Amino acid sequence: MRLLIADDHALFRESLRALLEARGVEVVGEAKNGKEAVALAGRLKPDIVLMDLGMPEVDGLEATRQVVTTLPGVRVVVLTASTDDEDLFEALQAGAQGYLLKDLEADSFMKLLEGALEGQPALTPELSRKILQAFSKRRQESVQEDPDALTERELDVLRLMVEGITSNRQLARRLDVTENTVKFHVRNILDKLHLHNRAQAVSVALRRKMVEPPE
Predict the structure, then answer these.
(1) Which of 43, 46, 129, 176 is the most buried (most CB within 10 A)?
(2) pTM to 2 decimals?
(3) Structural class in CATH, domain 152-207
(4) Do the domains 2-138 and 152-207 sit in the same CATH topology, yes or no?
(5) Per-residue pLDDT tens for 148-188?
(6) Domain boundaries, the chain
(7) CA distances for 144 relative to 150, 154, 210, angstroms
C-alpha cells in the first residue's frame, strides 16, 4: 500500500508515518496543506491519501474534490478529529472513500485502510449507522414532499429552455456542465412533468408559470 499523508500538524504526521511504516505501509509523501496534497497526489499517484479537513490554503474538503475529480485511481480517506455530522456528510459527498477519527485504535485503523484499498468504505460501525439514519430520514422527508418537484438545477435548465436554448451543447455551455449532465436533467424534467419532449416542457413551464418568461 502506497500512502500520502496530508495534515498541517508536523508532529502528528511524524507519529502517523512511524505507525504506518511499522505496519509495512509505504508512505510516499507528506503534505502540510490541501494545495500541497493535490500536487503531491498528482505527482506520486499513491493508492490512498489520508486527508485532514482543517488545513490552510486549501481545506481538506476542497482538496478531496480535486483529487477525486482529477485522479480517479487515487482513493481519499479523511482522517480527522471532527465528529461533526455535517463534516462527515460533506466529505462523503466530496468523494471520500471513508471518514476516520484520529482517536481510532491502530488495529481498527489499519483494517479499515486495507478495506479502502479494496474499494470498501472506510467507516466505523458508529459512523455507518449515522449515515443510514440520515439517509432514512431524508427518504421519509422526500416522500412527504411533492415527488415531482423540480430541483433548483432542473429549474435552471427549464428556464434556459424557455429562453430558447434547447440543444444539449448550448445548455451545457451556459450551465458549465457536461452534455451528459444536461441529458440527465432534461430526462428528469420530462419524467417529473410526465411529458415526451422539450417543446412540451417549455409550454407547460409557461402555462404553469414555473419560470419567468423571457422579456
Answers:
(1) 46
(2) 0.64
(3) mainly alpha
(4) no
(5) 688 889 999 999 988 888 889 999 999 999 989 999 999 99
(6) 2-138, 152-207
(7) 15, 20, 21
